[in-house]
């Protein structure tokens, strides 16, 4: 037995990392206490003061379990995949229903206390199942009833319909009145706080009775609607006003649009994003309201044509610009460049095929872009005039040569005759030089000849 314990201890200690400090003293890392005992949470678990393996698993009293295929209910492990607890028992919600402490072999069942019921033919009222009911039945305490034939007041059923409740009692409004749970034999009476009154002769505001009839309430006070107007608790000493939010106004002098007052009467109110407004004072663009009149719309933005230009929903900060079309979209050449239907967000570019480019940084030859500036084009190729010569699409070295068709030559020693390179002293049959010119050529190359 002692050897077994020693072997287990050695296995656990072999999994620990030791950090050696000054003086040769060591400390086990990752260690924690399980009550008074040390354990390594990487490989062990502390459950209610008991160390067990493996590490990281949930505890069920003093044991661990794999939550993927087991569950702990009331300190007891149940090996049931996908289960839940029904008090101290495990059940599978996919196939069973738990009602309080009882398990039924029904999926998604309806519980009434600890019993299961069928809501199509039964109704649960205060933990009691009532059968032979219809879908419109209501509950009165623990009993189901038909509201078309009975009345329920404070859990008590009355056999008459169309009654109302007054505290725990039922009454007929056709013959009686109710105030603060008390019944009165007069009908048509109303409550003012805990007092009953006749609205034909009195008025009630905030629990206070007034002996004059026909008054109305405005906050905590009363007023005669012939002489005043109440708007959201604010009393105005003029009758016949209308309300705009909490303000009273005369339609002859003001216009109200969705709670906003305008200082001119009879204005038209338009709708903007569900909100009313007056076009005389505001501008609506795609549901957005701008507090200035006379603006124009650019998409959902309002703008002044004097200061901005709109091209296909895009605003430019200068007024009066010309809008051009690029691939069906408008643009301003002052701010953008269009190349074969493609827009580039820079002005002053040139086009190379459908690409925009700056000649200060690139060269375009036959629709192809080259990343160097200052180059020349030779056919569809680029070349440097400082180092090369281009003759009808063919590049030669060095620069400064002359062309004879597609060939380059040095004009100081050679000449071109009928598309062919010859020596400069040769006579070309189509040359129109005069006899004097030929003599000059011969004299230069044959100084011994005498003419």
TrEMBL record:
The keyword Zinc-finger does not apply. PANTHER family: GALAXIN-LIKE ISOFORM X2, PROTEIN CBG12054-RELATED. Residues 1-21 form the signal peptide. InterPro entries: Ankyrin_rpt-contain_sf, Galaxin-like, Galaxin_dom. Keywords: Signal. This is Galaxin-like repeats domain-containing protein. Residues 84-207, 216-341 form the Galaxin-like repeats domain.
């Amino acid at each position: 037995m002692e050897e077994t314990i020693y072997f287990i201890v050695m296995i656990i200690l072999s999994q620990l990392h030791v950090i050696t400090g000054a003086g040769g003293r060591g400390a086990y890392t990752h260690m924690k206490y399980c009550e008074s005992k040390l354990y390594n949470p990487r490989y062990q678990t502390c459950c209610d003061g008991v160390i067990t393996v493996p590490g990281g698993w949930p505890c069920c009293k003093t044991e661990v379990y794999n939550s993927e295929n087991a569950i702990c209910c009331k300190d007891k492990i149940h090996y049931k995949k996908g289960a839940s607890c029904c008090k101290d028992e495990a059940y599978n919600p996919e196939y069973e229903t738990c009602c309080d402490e009882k398990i039924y072999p029904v999926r998604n069942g309806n519980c009434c206390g600890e019993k299961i019921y069928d809501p199509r033919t039964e109704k649960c009222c205060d933990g009691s199942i009532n059968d032979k009911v219809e879908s419109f039945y209501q509950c009165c305490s623990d009993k189901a009833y038909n509201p078309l034939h009975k009345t329920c007041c404070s859990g008590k059923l009355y056999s008459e319909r169309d009654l109302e409740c007054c505290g725990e009692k039922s009454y007929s409004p056709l013959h009686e009145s109710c105030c603060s749970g008390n019944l009165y034999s007069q009908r048509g009476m109303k409550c003012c706080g805990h007092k009953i009154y006749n609205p034909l002769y009195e008025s009630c505001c905030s629990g206070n009775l007034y002996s004059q009839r026909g008054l109305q309430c405005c906050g905590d006070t009363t007023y005669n609607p012939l002489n005043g107007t109440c708007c959201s608790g604010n009393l105005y000493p003029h009758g016949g006003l209308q309300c705009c939010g909490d303000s009273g106004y005369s339609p002859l002098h003001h216009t109200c649009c969705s709670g906003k007052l305008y200082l001119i009467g009879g204005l038209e109110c338009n709708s903007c994003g569900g909100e009313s407004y007056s076009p005389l004072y505001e501008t609506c663009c795609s549901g957005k309201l701008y507090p200035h009149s006379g603006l124009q719309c650019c998409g959902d933005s309002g703008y002044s044509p004097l200061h901005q230009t709109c091209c296909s929903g895009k605003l430019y900060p200068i007024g009066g610009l010309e809008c051009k079309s690029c691939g069906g979209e408008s643009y301003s050449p002052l701010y953008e460049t269009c190349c074969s239907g493609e827009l580039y967000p820079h002005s002053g570019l040139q086009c190379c095929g459908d690409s925009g480019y700056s000649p200060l940084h690139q060269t375009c030859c036959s629709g192809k872009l080259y990343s160097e500036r200052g180059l020349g084009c030779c056919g569809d190729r680029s070349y440097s005039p400082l180092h090369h010569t281009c003759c009808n699409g063919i590049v030669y070295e060095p620069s400064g040569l002359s062309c004879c068709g597609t060939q380059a030559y040095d004009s100081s020693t050679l000449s071109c005759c009928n598309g062919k390179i010859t020596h400069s002293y040769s006579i070309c049959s189509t040359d129109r030089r005069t006899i004097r010119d030929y003599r000059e050529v011969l004299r230069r190359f044959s100084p011994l000849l005498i003419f």
